[in-house]
UniProtKB/TrEMBL annotation, chain A:
It is a peripheral membrane protein. Keywords: ATP-binding, Cell membrane, Membrane, Nucleotide-binding, Transport. Belongs to the ABC transporter superfamily. One of its GO terms (biological process) is peptide transport. PROSITE patterns: ABC_TRANSPORTER_1 (PS00211), ABC_TRANSPORTER_2 (PS50893). This is ABC transporter ATP-binding protein. The keyword Ubl conjugation does not apply. InterPro entries: AAA+_ATPase, ABC_Ni/Peptide_Import, ABC_transporter-like_ATP-bd, ABC_transporter-like_CS, Oligopep_ABC_C, P-loop_NTPase. Residues 8-257 form the ABC transporter domain. The keyword Transport applies. One of its GO terms (cellular component) is plasma membrane. GO terms for molecular function: ATP binding; ATP hydrolysis activity.
UniProtKB/TrEMBL annotation, chain B:
InterPro entries: BPD_transp_1_N, MetI-like, MetI-like_sf. The keyword Transcription does not apply. Coiled coil: none annotated. One of its GO terms (molecular function) is dipeptide transmembrane transporter activity. The chain crosses the membrane at residues 12-30, 99-120, 132-157, 177-197, 239-261, 281-304. Its main location: membrane. This is Peptide ABC transporter permease.
Length: 341, 321, 297
């Protein structure tokens, strides 16, 4: 395969609040090829959004700081670029869309103004040309009567339509990479599928890579080629979607899978929950970060932090047992203790 | 928008009516014969009788009130005996001077207060932020008549940089005009400057943490544009409200400032008229200022709507069309 | 009926508890600025109450041989005014006027304004419309101008200053209380009380009033600062308390006329106004943050 379009190596991010330092991201590594889509999955606080936001260096500093690692995009380390150089990449070669379209559009400017602004920041075109392009973009993302709606304010759009506008802004300069931070979480269930389909459709049409941040494995199965599972600021498992769907190895991934609502389930089984909560990252985590909540934990897990290793090519996991010979046996009812209803 | 305008202008009428009623009753509450009080102690009995007749004080109260309203509506405030001129002439002569002072103070306040607030918000919890916060707290607590006196003491009496009193006419040259304007403007601008800095700081802090600011950054906009276009326009709404409120403060503060600097505006006219016990002039100028204030608030309301499309003040037309 | 009362009270207590911060006092005093403000207020109050003990001279004793002395001359800490009266002692006694007018005028405005706001907010409809139009009309006058007009009608004097500034304070309080009443009125427990058959007056004074207290206290604190400035302004314009009563505003006015000969008189009389008002504002800010940081005042 050719050179990956984006590769993140050993990324370290800290948040500082007074004397408390929280290690939000700790040694995250992954890569992404052209036209590929990658899903980053995890609970809130797992560092998935921070990782994604750090690619464009949009983490507010202070309190956030990237303390180590590199982010290579098309051969350039984004972390060493000047402010001016990173600005030229933002919204141009790499775009981002966010969780809540009702707050991520500026309420006091028309949507046209906000799309045109993005176009004219990166392309030397006249106002008229930019406006025509903006109308084309609105049409592309499926907004009816774009010539009319371009002059409307965000509050005159529905939630799904606003997210379409966000996508239009993000794609207006033909980015090579689109980072979508929980793009459907704030939307109605019926609208979610529409937005995901639109993104898939546009990916094929526009030749771009996508990073999809989500806590919903269902979204990943439907839209992504590759997946990384994050827990407590670390990657605990990664591989292709096809591989992980069938042969996931990490107990945390199993927990996520069990707590999914699947069509076949039909309420026959109670929904699983992973007991407990992630560790406080402002303290040094000893041993495996998942140990407190892991039904398979043994003495070694409390003592040593497992490293991410590849037992089979293209499928990495950070678990002492799954990377050695003594594989774990996945238990059907590991996450169904009696107390859950 | 048109419907909103009509409705807001119609709403002015009851407010102005109340203003007129309040002033009417305050003047009728004057102890003793109103004509005697209005004319002051040096008036003769004939003067008082003639003035009573002229004011229609011998008419029944409702007729007096009705005539008073008609006079107000036609901007006929009558004549001042102490100044020997129509009161409207006095107002026309003095009002522009107050506006010059108020507008220059407002400009000064916006030019200093707004950037100070923005910078404080951008550098939150730094020494710059603390200085702006502390200075603005001192500013809002400032007795401006004292500040005015201190400015005169240091910059006129001790240093001799600026004249202590009066207004420079433009014929004497622009330099003299400005030199006369600086001290009173600074005194009058102090409180609004501090208020603006406080308001802008807190609303910028609120705006900067919004998602659309992240969106603006993710588009690759320059930080200057992110702050001054995307954040500032959203932070502007509370500022506009405060500008409206401060303008009433400015008109009130002008009374004190003009007295200290002998600035020939409405405030000095009122204080002067009070000293001469010319209550007709006091009554008319106060009504005039109230009307101006109400009109300014209307303008602020309209601007508010222009700046913030989400605000739907026009409840009749339903959603935005 | 006893039962109804019981439920009423339980609901009320619950509602108030959920709104109030328990560690309010600790929160307030941890704020260093608020503590500083409180110190200034306490110092001012002590000065006002024990003025004769603080003062070094009789504030009304004139001495034509010792006019406009500089600070420290002949045992006068801050010098003397044009009548030979001791400036420091007059400032000490001036604290009485400032504090008295500040508190009394705000009480006056708070009682009348709150009453209007309560009636307006609770009954709504036409009553509300009429009262609010009158309040709007009063608010069309710049604060100090309304006080000036009232003083010209009422004439000079301490009581009249309190009344004039008090009346000017009515619209503000009416608005704050009306807003609070509308918020409280919406809440569920009022509905419950009403459905249990409580009377208007009872609901107003047992439930709405206590729940409006927090914002009212903050607003009143800030208003005292405003009232002190207003009193000084009126006295500065010669419309305040009658001479020879020592008031910071009238001292400043006199000082203004002797700016060259004795700049101390104007400097110090104004400086105490600034420190007093700043102290009250600091305390008010802290009070608001401790009671409810989201309070919009």
């Amino acid at each position: 395969m050719s050179e990956p379009i984006l590769s993140v190596k050993d990324l370290q991010i800290e948040f500082k609040s007074g004397s408390i330092v929280t290690k939000a991201v700790n040694g995250v590594t992954f890569s992404l090829n052209e036209n590929e889509s990658l899903g980053i999955v995890g609970e809130s606080g797992s560092g998935k959004s921070v990782t994604a936001t750090s690619i464009l260096r949009l983490i507010p500093n202070p309190p956030g700081k990237i303390t180590g690692g590199e982010i290579i995009f098309k051969g350039k380390n984004l972390l060493t670029l000047s402010n001016r150089e990173i600005r030229e990449i933002r919204g141009n070669e790499i775009s981002m869309i966010f969780q809540d379209p009702s707050t991520s559009l500026n309420p006091v400017f028309t949507v046209g103004n906000q799309i045109i602004e993005s176009i004219r920041t990166h392309k030397a075109v006249s106002k008229k040309e930019a406006r025509e392009l903006a109308i084309k973009m609105l049409e592309l993302v499926g907004i009816p009567a774009p010539e009319k709606r371009i002059d409307m304010y965000p509050h005159e759009f529905s939630g799904g339509m606003r997210q379409r506008v966000m996508i239009a802004i993000a794609l207006s300069c033909d980015p090579k990479l689109l980072i979508a931070d929980e793009p459907t979480t704030a939307l109605d269930v019926t609208v979610q599928a529409q937005i995901l389909n639109l993104m898939k459709e546009l990916q094929a049409k526009l030749n771009m890579s996508i990073i999809m941040i989500t806590h919903d494995l269902g979204v990943v199965w439907e839209t992504c080629d590759k997946i990384i599972v994050m827990y407590a600021g670390r990657v605990v498992e990664s591989g292709t979607v096809a591989e992980l769907y069938k042969n996931s190895l990490h107990p945390y991934t199993w927990g996520l899978l069990d707590s999914q609502i699947t069509e076949s389930q039909n309420n026959l089984k109670p929904l699983a929950t992973i007991p407990g909560s992630p560790p406080d990252l402002s303290f040094e985590v000893k041993g495996c970060p998942f140990v407190e909540r892991c039904p398979y934990a043994q003495t070694v897990c409390f003592e040593k932090t497992p490293q991410l290793m590849e037992p089979t090519k293209g499928h990495a996991v950070a678990c002492h047992f799954q990377t050695s010979d003594q594989k774990l046996e996945r238990k059907e009812d590991a996450y169904f203790d009696g107390s859950t209803t | 928008m048109k419907g909103f305008l009509y409705k807001r202008i119609l709403q002015l009428i009851p407010t102005l009516l109340i203003v007129a009623i309040i002033v009417f009753f305050i003047t009728r509450m004057l102890p003793g014969d109103p004509a005697a009080v209005m004319l002051g102690p040096q008036a003769s009995a004939e003067d008082i009788a003639a003035y009573s007749e002229k004011l229609g004080l011998n008419e029944p109260l409702h007729k007096q009130f009705f005539d008073y309203l008609i006079n107000l509506a036609t901007f006929d405030f009558g004549n001042s005996l102490t100044y020997n001129r129509p009161i409207m002439d006095l107002i026309i002569e003095r009002f522009p001077n107050t506006i010059i002072l108020a507008v220059s103070a407002l400009l000064l306040a916006v030019m200093i207060g707004v950037p100070a607030g923005i910078i404080a918000a951008r550098k939150q919890n730094t020494i710059i932020d603390y200085s702006v916060t502390t200075l603005s707290l001192i500013g809002v607590s400032m007795p401006i008549f004292w500040l005015g006196v201190m400015l005169v003491l240091y910059f006129s009496v001790n240093l001799g940089w600026f004249p202590a009193t009066g207004m420079g006419s433009l014929e004497e040259g622009f330099g003299s005009f400005i030199r006369h304007l600086i001290l009173p403007s600074v005194a009058l601008a102090t409180i609004p400057t501090a208020e603006f800095a406080r308001i802008i700081r807190s609303s910028m802090l609120e705006t900067i943490s919004q998602d659309y600011i992240k969106t603006a950054r993710s588009k690759g906009l320059k930080e200057f544009k992110v702050i001054n276009k995307h954040a500032f326009k959203n932070a502007l709404t509370p500022l506009l409200t405060v500008i409206g409120l401060q303008f009433s403060g400015l008109l009130g503060g002008a009374v004190l400032t003009e007295t200290i600097f002998s600035w020939p505006g409405m405030g000095l006219l009122i204080v002067d008229a009070i000293e001469k016990r010319d209550f007709v002039v006091v009554q008319s100028t106060v009504i005039f200022i109230a009307v101006i204030y109400v009109v300014i608030n209307l303008i602020v309301d309209i601007l508010y709507k222009v700046v913030n499309p989400k605000v739907n003040l026009d409840s009749n037309s339903g959603g935005g069309k | 009926m006893n039962n109804v009362q019981g439920i009423e009270e339980a609901r009320d207590i619950q509602y108030r508890k959920s709104k109030k911060e328990q560690s309010f006092i600790r929160k307030l005093l941890r704020n260093r600025f608020a503590a500083l403000g409180l110190f200034v207020i306490l110092l001012l109050t002590a000065t006002a109450i024990f003025a004769p003990y603080f003062a070094t001279h009789d504030p009304y004793e004139m001495d034509v041989t010792k006019t406009l002395l500089g600070p420290g001359e002949d045992g006068h800490i801050l010098g003397t005014d044009s009548y030979g009266r001791d400036t420091f002692s007059r400032i000490v006694f001036g604290a009485r006027i400032s504090l008295l007018v500040g508190v009394a005028a705000v009480l006056f405005g708070a009682v009348l304004g709150s009453l209007l706001g309560l009636i307006s907010g609770y009954f709504g409809g036409r009553t509300d419309a009429i009262i609010m139009r009158i309040i709007d009309g009063m608010m069309a006058f710049p604060f100090i101008l309304l006080a000036i007009v009232l003083m010209t009608v009422l004439g000079q004097g301490l009581v009249n200053v309190i009344i004039a500034i008090g009346i000017s304070n009515i619209p503000g309080f009416a608005r704050v209380v009306r807003g609070q009443v509308l918020t409280v009125k919406e809440s569920e427990f009022i509905e419950v009380t009403r459905s249990l058959g409580a009377k208007h007056g009872r609901i107003l004074f047992k439930h709405v009033v206590p729940n409006s207290v927090a914002p009212l206290i903050v607003y009143a604190t800030m208003s005292v600062a405003g009232a002190i400035i207003s009193e000084a302004s009126l006295s500065f314009l010669g419309l305040g308390v009658q001479p020879p009563t020592a008031s910071w505003g009238s001292m400043l006015q006199e000082g203004k006329n002797f700016l060259v000969l004795s700049p101390e008189l104007a400097t110090f009389s104004g400086l105490v106004i600034l420190i007093t008002v700043l102290g009250i504002n600091l305390f008010g800010d802290g009070l608001r943050d401790a009671l409810d940081p989201k309070m919009k005042l």
